[in-house]
Structures are given as structure tokens and as C-alpha cells.
């Protein structure tokens, strides 16, 4: 396993993070899997053996059951690893059962700690933007949780570029803790994060963790053009995330992943993860799995280094358009671009 420093913090996290989205299977999460404590213990053991030191969950995953299973499955190891958790999404029918208010965040953090059987959360993410709660209130609540020792580091997830920068600006102005990381969706198929979120991460020193780095398995090689969707897949059960806007482009990307993987004797999933882990500011890929083999295969991706020719093939088949103002900057400001700018503009060279 390789370990990377998370943003401008001193925290070292494994390049592969274990996601627990599939623990529990309560409600709609049953479309992904319904893993029990026994299943979780087996899979967690595989990840620990592979050097994984970060386990990711959220209060909304199976409405808290994922957290309960993670805490119980870790047992006496729960204080020897890092755990990241999230809050913001709706978890009940009440008017304050969602959002980033002081009331909701402090209550949900304390509930998550109880379910996890821990006295602190290592990385606490705002799971989604809340445009109705003032950022001063949200960040003040997070400051309280950090001061109380219930949270070590804070981050954001699914924010737009201006959301991230506004939050960092409020933190600097009010002397609140800053986000040290953002958890985002970013894959060969979905490269929109390159427009703003990756340059911000480089410029502001944010570590990047990537959720669903294989696009819910679509980049694993198990799904192919003109091939029936596997009956046990979440897509076959009605799961619609992430959205695929251009299926032809998706299958073209998968074709290249499979070809490169076959030439190396490894899986398409390993090639997709190796590409991702080489991107600017990316610290760790949050992977899930149904079997030990899935996790072993994903963990092995950290040792793959793509050649320039392989990287160029993947870049060409997955290229995104240079939107305005980026095409204008590329044409007229290329000699005045910063390292953060090049997180995007390197793709157009």
C-alpha cells in the first residue's frame, strides 16, 4: 500500500479507502448490496491485510446501519484505523432532519459516534451543499466539534467550485478550521471536476478523495458494449447514479481500459484506478466491493504506473471540451498559468 498526505494536513491516508456504502442494505441501499456484520468483517480483514487505513461511511447510508456494522465489524481495531463520516442529507421526516445547521450537525455527529462506538471521527464531511444555512453557522458548528475533540479534520463533498472557495474564505475570515479535503465524483467517464475542483484542490491545498471511482462498476470491465448487464449489479436493480450522458463514449473508454489491462495481464478496473491515482491532488480512491477478490484487485492498482502512451490513449478517448473561459486562457495566457491552472490545462496540450 502507498500512503499519501491529506492536503495540507499531517494526516497520512492509504491510496485506497474502503467504502461502506453497501453495508446494511436498508431502503434504497438494498439495490447496491445488503452486507451483514459477518460480510463486513471478512471484507474489512482483506482491506486491513492490504494496508488500507481509512474507512468511509455516512449517517445516511442505510440510515445509520452502515455505521453500526462498520463499528461492530472493526471491533477492537476501530481505534487503530481512520474513519471518515458525513452529514447533511435527510435522515428522517422532521424539519431539522437534514441540512448543515448547528442543530443538525452536532446532533448527527453525536449519533454517528454512538453507532460507530468511538469518541471521535477522523474526517467529517459536509455531504452536500446547503444553500439555506449560512456558512458561518455550519463552520462554527464544525469548529465546536473540533474543539470538543469529536472531529479531527473537516471536509466537503459534492460542492461546486464557488461553494468550496466561499467556505474556505469564511473559515479564513472567522478563524474556523478549514476543509482539508473534498470527496468528489471523478472518473475517466466523468472528468468535469477538472474544470474547477481539481485546480482549487491544488491551489488551496485540499486532498481529493474520489467516490465511486469505477463509476458504480461501469469501468470495471464487467460491463461491455452489447453485453447484458450482470443480474447482480446495481444497474440491473434500478440504480441510476452516476448519470451516463453519452453511452458510446463510455463504451469507447471501457474498450481502451480492457485493451490496456489485457496487454498488462491486469483488470480494466486496475487501469482505471491507476489513471485516477495519478491525477493532480488525488489522494485516495474510495472503493467498494462485494467480494474479497474485488478489494484485492482494487488494492493492487496502487502499484501500476501507466506509460506515457497508455495515458495518452486514455486521455484521448475520454477528453472533455475546453469550455469558456478555459479555451481563451489556453490560447492567450498559457505562459502565465499557475500549477493549479495546469491541473486543467495539461489536458489540452
Give a structural overview.
With 349 residues, the protein is of the alpha/beta class. The protein has a domain at 3-217 and 280-305: Alpha-Beta Barrel (TIM Barrel), CATH 3.20.20. The chain is built from 12 helices and 10 strands. The protein has an 8-stranded parallel β-barrel with strand order 3-4-5-6-7-8-9-10, surrounded by 6 helices. The mean pLDDT is 95.
Number of helices: 12
* Major sheet description: 8 strands, parallel, barrel
Q: Helix/strand/pairing class, anyone?
A: alpha/beta
Alpha carbon gyration radius: 20 Å
Give the N-terminus to C-terminus distance in angstroms.
Answer: 32 Å
Read across the widest sheet, the strand sequence of neighbours is: 3-4-5-6-7-8-9-10
Superfamily at the CATH H level of the domain at 3-217 and 280-305?
NADP-dependent oxidoreductase domain
Task: List how many beta strands DSSP finds.
Answer: 10
- What is the CATH top level name of the domain at 3-217 and 280-305? Alpha Beta
Helix content: 25-40%
CATH topology of the domain at 3-217 and 280-305: TIM Barrel
CATH architecture grouping of the domain at 3-217 and 280-305:
Alpha-Beta Barrel
Low-confidence stretches: none
- Order of helical and strand elements: EEEHEHEHEHEHEHEHHEHHHH
The overall average pLDDT, rounded, is: 95
**% residues in beta strands:** 5-15%
Coarse shape: globular
Give the secondary structure arrangement, pairings included:
Layout: E1 3-5, E2 12-14, E3 16-19, H1 37-49, E4 54-56, H2 65-74, E5 82-87, H3 102-116, E6 121-126, H4 135-147, E7 151-157, H5 161-174, E8 179-185, H6 197-204, E9 207-211, H7 247-264, H8 268-277, E10 282-287, H9 292-299, H10 308-318, H11 326-332, H12 339-345
Parallel strand pairs: 3-4, 3-10, 4-5, 5-6, 6-7, 7-8, 8-9, 9-10
Antiparallel strand pairs: 1-2
Helix pairs in contact: 1-2, 1-9, 2-3, 3-4, 6-12, 7-8, 7-10
Amino acid at each position: 500500500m502507498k500512503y499519501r498526505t491529506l492536503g495540507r494536513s499531517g494526516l497520512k491516508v492509504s491510496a485506497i479507502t474502503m467504502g461502506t456504502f453497501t453495508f446494511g442494505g436498508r431502503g434504497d441501499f438494498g439495490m447496491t448490496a445488503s452486507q451483514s456484520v459477518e460480510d463486513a468483517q471478512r471484507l474489512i480483514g482483506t482491506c486491513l491485510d492490504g494496508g488500507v487505513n481509512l474507512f468511509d461511511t455516512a449517517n445516511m447510508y442505510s440510515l445509520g446501519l452502515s455505521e453500526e456494522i462498520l463499528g461492530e465489524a472493526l471491533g477492537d481495531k476501530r481505534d487503530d484505523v481512520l474513519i471518515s463520516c458525513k452529514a447533511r442529507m435527510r435522515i428522517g421526516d422532521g424539519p431539522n432532519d437534514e441540512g448543515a445547521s448547528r442543530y443538525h450537525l452536532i446532533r448527527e455527529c453525536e449519533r454517528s459516534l454512538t453507532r460507530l462506538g468511538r469518541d471521535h471521527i477522523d474526517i467529517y464531511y459536509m455531504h452536500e451543499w446547503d444553500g439555506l444555512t449560512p456558512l458561518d453557522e455550519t463552520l462554527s458548528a464544525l469548529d465546536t466539534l473540533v474543539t470538543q475533540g469529536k472531529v479531527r479534520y473537516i471536509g466537503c463533498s459534492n460542492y461546486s467550485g464557488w461553494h468550496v472557495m466561499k467556505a474556505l474564505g469564511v473559515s479564513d475570515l472567522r478563524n474556523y478550521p478549514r476543509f482539508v479535503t473534498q470527496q468528489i465524483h471523478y472518473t475517466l467517464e466523468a472528468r468535469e471536476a477538472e474544470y474547477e475542483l481539481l485546480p482549487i484542490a491544488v491551489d488551496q491545498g485540499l486532498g481529493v478523495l474520489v467516490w465511486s471511482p469505477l463509476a458504480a462498476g461501469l469501468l470495471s470491465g464487467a460491463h461491455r458494449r452489447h453485453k447484458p448487464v450482470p443480474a447482480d449489479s446495481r444497474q440491473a436493480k434500478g440504480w441510476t447514479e452516476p448519470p451516463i450522458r453519452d453511452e458510446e463514449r463510455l463504451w469507447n473508454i471501457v474498450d481502451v481500459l480492457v485493451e490496456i489491462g489485457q496487454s498488462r495481464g491486469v483488470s480494466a478496473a486496475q487501469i482505471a484506478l491507476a489513471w485516477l491515482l495519478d491525477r493532480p491532488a488525488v489522494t485516495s480512491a474510495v472503493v467498494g466491493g462485494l467480494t474479497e477478490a474485488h478489494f484485492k484487485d482494487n488494492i493492487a492498482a496502487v502499484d501500476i504506473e501507466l506509460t506515457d502512451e497508455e495515458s495518452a490513449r486514455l486521455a484521448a478517448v475520454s477528453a472533455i471540451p475546453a469550455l469558456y473561459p478555459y479555451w481563451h486562457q489556453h490560447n492567450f495566457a498559457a505562459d502565465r498559468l499557475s500549477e493549479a491552472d495546469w491541473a486543467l490545462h495539461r489536458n489540452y496540450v
